[in-house]
Amino acid sequence: MASNLRIGHGYDVHRLVEGRRCIIGGVDIPHEKGLLGHSDADVLTHALADAILGAVRGGDIGKLFPDTDPAYKDADSLKLLAAVMDFARERGFELVDADCTIACEQPKIGPHREAMRANLAAALGVDASCVGVKATTTERLGWEGEGRGIGAWAVCLMERCRD
C-alpha cells in the first residue's frame, strides 16, 4: 500500500566572499562577507527548496532555476522557494513539516532564527510552527569552521493531498 507521505532531504553550500550580502533564510545579516552564487545565494532557502523537490520527485533547484539562465541572476531565493512550493502543490502535495540546520562559525544565527522561520513559512504558505531552523558550529573544523563558506541541510515531510 502506497503512503501519502514523502520525505525529502536537501543540502546546499556557498562560499563566503567579500563584496556580497549575507542573506540566509531571507534575512540580510550584517557581516563582513556574503555568500557567492548566481542568485542571492541563500544557502538555507536553497537547501529547503531541494528537500521539497526531492520529496515530490521534482529534481533539484538547479533543474528548475539553472544558474546558466540570466533571469535568475541575483534572484530572491524566497521567491524561488515559493515557486518550488507552487510546483509541489501542482503535483498534489502540501508541506507537513520541515527542519533545517545551518553550519557556520560566523555570522551568529540565533538572533535571526525567528525571522528566518517566518520568512520561510511565508514563502511556503504555511504556519511558522511548521518550519524549524537551528544552527551549529563545526568547532572551527573544516571549511565552515575556517569561515570559507556556509552549509545548510533541510528535511521535510510532504503529504499528497490529491492526485
Report on this model:
- By secondary structure, this protein is α+β, with helices and mostly antiparallel strands.
- It contains 5 helices and 7 strands.
- Strand 5 (93-103), helix 4 (113-124) and strand 6 form a beta-alpha-beta unit.
- Helix 1 (43-55) runs parallel beside helix 3 and helix 3 (77-90) packs across helix 4 (113-124).
- The chain starts with a strand and ends with a strand.
- The mean pLDDT is 94.
Spatial gap, N to C terminus: 15 Å
Percent of residues in helices comes to 25-40%
Radius of gyration: 15 Å
Question: Which structural class should the secondary elements be placed in?
Answer: alpha+beta
* Order of helical and strand elements: EEEEHHHEHEHE
β-strand percent reads 25-35%
- Mean pLDDT across the residues is 94
Unreliable spans: none
The rough form would be described as globular
**Total strands:** 7
Strand order of the largest sheet: 4-1-7-5-6
How would a textbook summarize the main sheet?
A: 5 strands, mixed
Q: Helical stretch count?
A: 5
Compact description:
The chain has 163 residues and is an alpha+beta fold. The protein is built from 5 helices and 7 strands.
Structure characteristics:
single chain; about 160 residues; alpha+beta; five-stranded mixed sheet; two-stranded antiparallel sheet; 5 helices; 7 strands; globular
Task: Give the arrangement of secondary structure elements.
Blueprint: E1 5-17, E2 22-24, E3 27-29, E4 34-35, H1 43-55, H2 61-64, H3 77-90, E5 93-103, H4 113-124, E6 131-136, H5 142-145, E7 149-160
Parallel strand pairs: 5-6
Antiparallel strand pairs: 1-4, 1-7, 2-3, 5-7
Helix pairs in contact: 1-3, 3-4
